[in-house]
C-alpha cells in the first residue's frame, strides 16, 4: 500500500511538470533582452526551474508563476514606470530620482523587464533571501554587470548587515508573494526595515504587489504560521509600522473572486489580492 508523504502531497499541489502555454512575454524577454535563440528558450526555462526548485520548493517556482509577467500590467506598475522615467533633476543631482526595490525578487525577472521597457538599470534594486536565486537569474539572463543592484539578505535578521546597502536609497517598493509568508509580528518588523530603505525626505513612497489575502483576517495555522489580511487588517498593520517609524500610510487592497487558493493550508475564504500602500504626509 502506498502512503503519500507530506513532501509528495506538497509537490502534488504545487508542482507542474510541463511549461504552461502563457509564457509568450517571458520568452520574448529572453529573446530580445538576453538574445536567446527562440528554439532554446524552453530548454533553458526547464533547466532554470530545476535549479530554483532545488534551492526552495516555493509554489511560485513549482507552478511556473515566477515566469508570469502579466502581473506587471497592474496599475501600480504604471505609476512606478511613470515615476522612474522622470529625468534626474540637474539642480539636486541623482538623489532626486525615484528608485525601485523588488523584495523577494527571485531571479530578477521583473527588474529585467523594466530595463527592457526603458527604465535605467541604476534606478532598480532587488533583494532575496536566497543568493542562489540572484546568481541563477544572472546566468539565465546572461547580463553580468548590467547595472542592476542585487543584495541577498534576511529582512528579519538584525545581524544581517548586507541589506544596509539599501538604506536611504529607495522610494518605490514591489513585493509579490511575500508578506503572506510571515506572522503579524514579523510583518511589522519587515515594514519597519522597509521604511529604513527610504530616501531621506521621501513623503510619497509607494509599496505595492500581490499576495494571498482573505475575507477573514487571521493567523494561519500550520507548521509555518503566517498572517493573512483583508483591507482593514493590513491597514491596521501599517498603522503599527507608522507608529514605530513616525510615518503614515494608506492601504488599498483589491481581492480577486475569480478563483480560490488551491494551495495546501489555505481555506475557502482565502483569495489572491493586490495591494498598494501609499505614504501620507505626516
UniProtKB/TrEMBL annotation:
<dbReference type="InterPro" id="IPR051654">
    <property type="entry name" value="Meroterpenoid_MTases"/>
</dbReference>
<comment type="pathway">
    <text>Secondary metabolite biosynthesis.</text>
</comment>
<comment type="similarity">
    <text>Belongs to the class I-like SAM-binding methyltransferase superfamily.</text>
</comment>
<dbReference type="InterPro" id="IPR041698">
    <property type="entry name" value="Methyltransf_25"/>
</dbReference>
<keyword id="KW-0808">Transferase</keyword>
<dbReference type="GO" id="GO:0016740">
    <property type="term" value="F:transferase activity"/>
</dbReference>
<dbReference type="InterPro" id="IPR029063">
    <property type="entry name" value="SAM-dependent_MTases_sf"/>
</dbReference>
<protein>
    <recommendedName>
        <fullName>Methyltransferase domain-containing protein</fullName>
    </recommendedName>
</protein>
<feature type="domain" description="Methyltransferase">
    <location>
        <begin position="101"/>
        <end position="201"/>
    </location>
</feature>
<dbReference type="Pfam" id="PF13649">
    <property type="entry name" value="Methyltransf_25"/>
</dbReference>
<keyword id="KW-0949">S-adenosyl-L-methionine</keyword>
Amino acid at each position: 500500500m502506498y502512503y503519500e508523504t507530506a513532501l509528495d502531497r506538497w509537490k502534488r499541489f504545487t508542482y507542474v511538470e510541463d511549461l504552461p502555454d502563457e509564457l509568450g512575454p517571458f520568452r520574448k524577454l529572453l529573446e530580445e533582452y538576453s538574445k536567446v535563440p527562440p528554439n532554446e528558450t524552453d530548454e533553458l526555462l526547464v533547466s532554470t526551474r530545476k535549479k530554483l526548485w532545488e534551492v526552495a520548493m516555493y509554489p511560485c517556482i513549482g507552478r511556473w508563476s515566477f515566469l508570469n509577467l502579466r502581473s506587471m500590467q497592474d496599475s501600480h506598475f504604471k505609476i512606478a514606470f511613470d515615476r522612474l522615467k522622470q529625468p534626474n533633476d540637474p539642480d539636486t543631482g541623482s538623489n532626486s530620482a525615484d528608485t525601485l526595490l523588488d523584495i523577494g525578487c527571485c531571479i530578477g525577472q521583473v527588474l529585467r523587464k523594466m530595463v527592457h521597457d526603458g527604465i535605467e538599470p541604476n534606478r532598480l534594486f532587488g533583494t532575496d533571501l536566497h543568493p542562489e536565486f540572484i546568481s541563477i537569474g544572472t546566468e539565465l539572463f546572461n547580463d553580468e554587470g548590467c547595472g542592476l543592484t542585487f543584495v541577498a539578505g534576511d529582512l528579519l535578521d538584525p545581524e544581517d548587515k548586507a541589506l544596509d546597502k539599501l538604506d536611504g536609497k529607495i522610494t518605490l517598493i514591489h513585493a509579490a508573494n511575500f508578506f503572506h509568508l510571515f506572522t503579524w509580528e514579523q510583518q511589522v518588523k519587515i515594514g519597519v526595515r522597509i521604511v529604513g530603505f527610504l530616501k531621506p525626505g521621501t513623503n510619497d513612497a509607494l509599496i505595492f504587489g500581490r499576495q494571498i489575502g482573505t475575507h477573514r483576517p487571521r493567523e494561519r495555522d500550520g507548521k509555518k504560521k503566517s498572517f493573512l489580511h483583508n483591507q482593514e487588517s493590513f491597514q491596521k498593520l501599517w498603522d503599527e509600522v507608522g507608529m514605530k517609524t513616525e510615518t503614515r500610510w494608506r492601504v488599498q487592497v483589491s481581492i480577486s473572486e475569480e478563483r480560490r487558493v488551491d494551495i495546501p493550508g489555505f481555506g475557502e475564504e482565502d483569495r489572491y489580492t493586490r495591494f498598494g500602500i501609499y505614504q501620507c504626509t505626516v
